[in-house]
Every structure is written in C-alpha cells, then in structure tokens.
Specification:
Elements (H helix, E strand, L loop, with lengths): L1 H12 L3 H4 E8 H5 L2 H4 L12 E8 L4 E7 L4 H8 L2 E2 L30 E6 L4 E6 L4 E6 L1
Antiparallel strand pairs: 1-2, 2-3, 3-7, 4-5, 5-6, 6-7
Length: 143
C-alpha cells in the first residue's frame, strides 16, 4: 500500500507532463489531416500535400509546437512567396520544447549556424521554418 501511495505522489510531483505534451507521427499528409493535431490547429495549414514522415509534438501549457517532415518539389519556393522573407539566425527565437527527432541546434538558446539552414519567419503561421542545406527536410516551430 505504501509503495502505491509513493508512486502516485511521484507521478503528481513530476508535473504531469503526460497530459500536457503530445507526440505524434504520421506517414503522410492524408494521415495528418485526419488527426487531432491538424484539427486542433497545432500544425500549420501550408504543409505540402506531398509531405511524408511527419513528426509533431506540442505542449498545451505553453502553446508550443515542433514539427518535421520530408518533402519533394518546391516547398522552399512556396516559403519564399508566403513568408515575409528569409530571416537571419540571429533574429530567431528557437524552440522551447524538444524531442528525440528534433535537432539540438534548433532548441533553446542554440547558436545554430547560418551555414546549416535556410531560415524563414512566417507571420501567416506565427512560426519559424528551417530547411537544412541540400535536403528535402523541413523543421517548423512556434514558441
């Protein structure tokens, strides 16, 4: 009985992150658009329809979200048109949550290099995009 009580107390002292943080994986755009992450507004609506291997994590308390996906085609060109402009890494507020799949160079007080990513700030979705040079991978976050 004492062990059960200790486990319950430790669970509540841990901050109950289990209920506030949600992590999801979607194989493709169709799976994503049928999800609560999409319907709940956690995912920006400008994700391309050819997006695959979509990872998403959000924190209800902080209203923060991180998202990664692979794409093919001209998504970078779409960002050039939709977002204000490319932004310098010195002007970026990096993500305040993390996941196993999220690069450390895009978290917290990182000093990511301008030689690693194309960075975009997009007021339309109130968030940042980073595309590593030479890849078809996109990282999105809103803090």
């Amino acid at each position: 009985m004492n062990r059960l009580l200790i486990i319950i107390i430790l669970f509540f002292l841990s901050g109950c992150d289990f209920f506030e943080r949600h992590d999801s994986h979607f194989n493709d755009y169709a799976e994503l658009t049928n999800s609560q992450s999409w319907k709940g507004g956690w995912v920006p609506k400008l994700i391309p329809k050819d997006a695959i291997n979509i990872q998403e994590s959000h924190d209800i308390d902080t209203n923060s979200v991180i998202l990664a996906f692979d794409f093919s085609g001209n998504f970078k060109d779409q960002l050039d048109k939709i977002c204000d402009s490319k932004t310098g890494y010195a002007d970026i507020q990096f993500a305040n949550i993390n996941a196993k799949w999220w690069p450390n160079s895009l978290t917290g007080s990182s000093f990511a290099s301008s030689h690693e990513y194309h960075y975009y700030f997009c007021p339309y979705v109130e968030g940042y995009f980073a595309i590593p040079f030479g890849t078809e991978k996109v990282y999105y976050w809103r803090s």
